From TrEMBL:
Example GO molecular function: gluconate transmembrane transporter activity
Originating species: Neptunicella marina
A GO CC annotation given for this chain: plasma membrane
Classification via Pfam families: GntP_permease
Keywords: Cell membrane, Membrane, Transmembrane, Transmembrane helix, Transport
Location in or out of the cell: Cell membrane
Protein name as catalogued: Gluconate transporter
Transmembrane segments: 6-22, 29-51, 57-76, 137-154, 174-197, 218-241, 253-276, 297-319, 339-364, 411-435
Length: 436
């Protein structure tokens, strides 16, 4: 009966979001309350349980996500994103344009949230398409594959960042493993796959042809790259240094500087002086941008809070132990299980973030029973959450409308690309699991 209660709650969550079009935060709360009742929690304990779940999950994440959004906004408004794109175009040349666009999406996508990165970088694709007369879809898919990879696999993006504490993973190691998985995944789903899309003749809307900043108004190339990648460099460095030292105890200073919250704060403060001021952005202009960035991620924070409430119900009720007992008897790799669960929810709901968080809310409470590397579990769920994007995903419609495609063309290009990211990502994760 306990497992059936969980199934009923998840089905309700799916119906509320996909059928009634209810906001995911409200859908999570309603599903969590129903799960509490079905699982026999005392009525007077339901509200405190939901509050505890929201606070426990949002507590360590809110600063990282909010400051990360501010950092991405500054990278965009300063012109650093445009400079990175221009520099990579010049480095790779026209022969390797798809590689250049892929690396542009990857580097710029690390500090920028997916929807922001999409809107900022797609005009670059259209500009190149008009200049070179190459098909826009052929040029755009490599960039978007890289954006998807960063969105699903790499902190400080919301879903992987939220999954790390739930599974007791390490933010730095998850990032390092994510980078290992990301490169071959985006190469196959991006430049390789796009070679088969040259026959899709789409004319992007002229509205989206960009008005670029003049070159002299952009920050320097080295400055743009180093500042944009600073969060990644700091997280990777602080994760790797303890393994290079013979000391069994890490330095308190290293532990402080390597904390994701401190990493993002240091990166933002430095970017204000390396990107903001040199680009002519006043303090008031930067602060206005930060306010806009907070508004952009407010919805994401609410969704994460709702997922935390549902997870807490599963923990307090003890149903996670029952589910763990069932799954432990199945002859299926736990990483494949996490990927499959996230895939099913993604197909039903459309949102990659909601799919990842919902799968984690079911699996995280029994992580100790699964006997699997928690960092790889974060990545496996991330890969599953990117699978099979279709008509219930906002990204599907953004791609269709921006590139001016019909439904068949969108399925052949966008949906196939997202599915390749999920499948190749899973293969790389399972391979990495054999090695480590």
């Amino acid at each position: 009966m306990a497992v059936l209660s969980v199934v009923i709650s998840i089905v309700l969550l799916i119906l509320l979001i996909s059928w009634l079009k209810l906001h995911p935060f409200l859908a999570f709360l309603i599903s969590a309350i129903l799960a509490s009742v079905l699982l026999g929690l005392p009525l007077d304990s339901i509200a405190p349980t939901l509050q505890a779940g929201m606070g426990n999950l949002l507590g360590p994440l809110s600063v990282i996500i909010c400051v990360g959004a501010m950092f991405g906004k500054l990278v965009c408004e300063s012109g650093a994103a445009q400079q990175i794109g221009n520099s990579l175009m010049a480095l790779f040349g026209q022969k390797y344009l798809t590689l250049a666009l892929m690396f542009t999406g990857f580097i710029v996508g690390i500090p920028l949230f997916y929807n922001v990165g999409f809107v900022i970088l797609i005009p670059l694709v259209f500009s190149i398409a008009y200049q070179t007369k190459l098909p826009a879809v052929y040029l755009g898919i490599p960039l978007l594959a890289a954006l998807s990879v960063t969105h699903g696999f790499l902190p400080p993006h919301p879903s992987p960042t939220a999954l790390v504490p739930q599974f007791g993973a390490d933010m730095g190691l998850t990032l390092v493993y994510g980078l290992i998985v990301a490169l071959p995944t985006m190469l196959i789903a991006g430049p390789f796959f796009s070679r088969f899309l040259k026959d899709i003749n789409a004319t992007p809307l002229k509205t989206f042809v960009p008005e670029d900043k003049p070159q002299e108004a952009l920050p320097g190339t080295l400055n743009s790259f180093l500042t944009s990648l600073l969060p990644v460099l700091l997280l990777a460095l602080t994760a790797g240094l303890p393994h290079l030292s013979d000391s069994e105890t890490s330095s308190p200073l290293l532990g402080f500087v390597g904390h994701p919250m401190v990493v993002m704060l240091l990166s933002l403060l430095l970017a204000m002086f390396t990107l903001g001021k040199p680009s002519g952005l006043s303090m008031s202009k930067m602060l206005d941008g930060f306010s806009d960035a907070i508004k952009d991620v407010a919805v994401i924070l609410l969704i994460i809070a709702g997922a935390g409430a549902l997870k807490q119900v599963f923990v307090v009720s003890g149903v996670s132990q029952d589910i763990g007992t069932i799954f432990s008897s199945l002859a299926i790799n736990p990483l494949l299980l996490g990927w499959l669960m996230a895939t099913i929810i993604r197909i039903c709901l459309g949102s990659a973030t909601v799919a990842g968080l919902t799968a984690a809310s079911i699996l995280a409470p029994m992580a100790a029973q699964l006997d699997v590397d928690p960092n790889l579990m974060v990545l496996a769920i991330g890969a599953g959450s990117l699978m099979c994007s279709h008509v219930n995903d906002s990204g599907f419609w953004m791609f269709k409308e921006y590139f001016n495609l019909d439904l068949k063309q969108t399925f052949m290009s966008w949906t196939m690309m997202e599915t390749l990211v999920g499948v190749v990502g899973l293969f790389m994760i399972l391979t990495l699991n054999l090695i480590i």
